[in-house]
């Protein structure tokens, strides 16, 4: 059974549909990464799943019901949307105790979740003085308070240092291993590659792809299928490979101008190796360019990026 079911979810602000007929599911015992460029509609989707924003159309079901249909939602789903929402004058412990009280959760849980997120030592400090990373941990403690089977987290690694990110990864993996469903939005693609089992990629409010991380990396490898070759006779190499049916383009020049890189598509490494050997040419390099999660993501979302900087990462990273 899927624990989070998003079905045809649609939301417009003014004339702009920020979430547009979106459907996907999240299964138990897994971490699902929710990816998309800035403004793609991730936060709006998560807010609709948590009953904070009303959809124009479609449904978001948590364990088969909408958020508001659960009598004690915090026991079903824990959420971290905005790390800074706790009252700044309350201590971490007072904040969690208040949260437990108002949701009829045993206050004995407070110490457990403080320990789980590593905040025991600062439990009596006012949260107004917390760093963003500490606030993220406190937000996560609040999400875990009701021991829910489902977690919905918006950019939980935001503000964490590398050690904090590694800690968060370990904790989320552990929570999934305990059988929980974890839906986590992030911009940190390399991090997602290490953390998530599945990804849901959206752009302009629409689903682009839901697949496993392993599948995501093959998106790029199979689509591009590029091989980098370098040799001391680039002119002859280009002519030979073009004649053999390949498309050959220039790579970004490297340190050796006498053997510039060529990017070859349409022939496998084996084909290139045989053709080059048959012609008696020398090669310095023959490298298949494998897809990374980031390459695949950029390829998938390229046309749905709304806010573009002046540097185009895919081109900048060529070679
Ligand atoms: N309350 C609102 N009123 C008007 N427009 C809104 C509102 N909330 C979100 N939007 C717009 O909806 C679009 C999607 O925003 P959303 O925050 O869901 O995207 P996102 O994928 O989470 O982006 P980011 O990665 O930058 O956080 C954006 O263009 C945003 O400006």
TrEMBL record:
Output one GO MF annotation: ATP binding
Q: Where is the ABC transporter domain?
A: 4-229
Q: Which UniProt keywords apply?
A: ATP-binding, Nucleotide-binding, Transport
Query: Which SMART domains does the UniProt entry name for this protein?
Result: AAA (SM00382)
Where is the secretion signal located?
none
Per the record, the domain of life is Bacteria
Which Gene3D superfamilies would you find in this protein's record?
P-loop containing nucleotide triphosphate hydrolases
Asked whether the UniProt record includes DNA damage among its keywords, one would answer no
Q: Does the keyword Repeat apply?
A: no
Family assignment? Belongs to the ABC transporter superfamily.
- Could you tell me what this protein is called? ATP-binding cassette domain-containing protein
Whose protein is this, by species? Streptomyces nigra
């Amino acid at each position: 059974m899927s624990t989070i079911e998003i079905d045809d979810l649609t939301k417009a602000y003014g004339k702009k549909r920020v979430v547009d007929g979106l459907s996907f599911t999240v299964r138990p015992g897994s971490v699902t990464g929710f990816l998309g460029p800035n403004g793609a509609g991730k936060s709006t989707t998560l807010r609709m799943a948590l009953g904070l924003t009303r959809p124009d159309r479609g449904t978001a079901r948590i364990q088969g019901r909408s958020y508001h249909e659960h009598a004690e939602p915090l026991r079903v789903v824990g959420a971290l949307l905005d790390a800074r929402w706790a009252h700044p004058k309350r201590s971490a412990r007072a904040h969690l105790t208040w949260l437990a009280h108002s949701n009829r959760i045993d206050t004995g849980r407070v110490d457990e979740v403080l320990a789980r997120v590593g905040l025991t030592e600062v439990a009596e400090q006012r949260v107004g003085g917390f760093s963003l990373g500490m606030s993220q941990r406190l937000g996560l403690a609040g999400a875990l308070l009701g021991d829910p089977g489902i977690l919905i987290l918006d950019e939980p690694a935001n503000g964490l240092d590398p050690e904090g990110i590694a800690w968060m990864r370990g904790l989320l993996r552990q929570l999934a291993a305990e059988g929980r469903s974890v839906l986590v939005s992030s911009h940190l693609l390399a991090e997602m590659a290490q953390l998530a089992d599945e990804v849901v990629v959206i752009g302009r409010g629409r689903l682009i792809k839901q697949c496993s991380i392993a599948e995501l990396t093959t998106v790029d490898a199979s689509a591009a299928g590029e091989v980098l070759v370098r040799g001391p006779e680039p002119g002859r190499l280009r002519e030979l490979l073009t004649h053999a049916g390949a498309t050959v383009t220039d790579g970004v020049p490297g340190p050796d101008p006498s053997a510039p890189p060529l990017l070859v598509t349409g022939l496998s490494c084996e084909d290139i190796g045989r053709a080059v050997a048959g012609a008696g040419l020398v090669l310095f390099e023959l490298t298949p360019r494998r897809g990374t999660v980031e390459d695949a993501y950029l390829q998938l979302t390229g046309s749905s990026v709304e806010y573009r900087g002046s540097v185009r990462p895919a081109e900048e990273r060529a070679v």
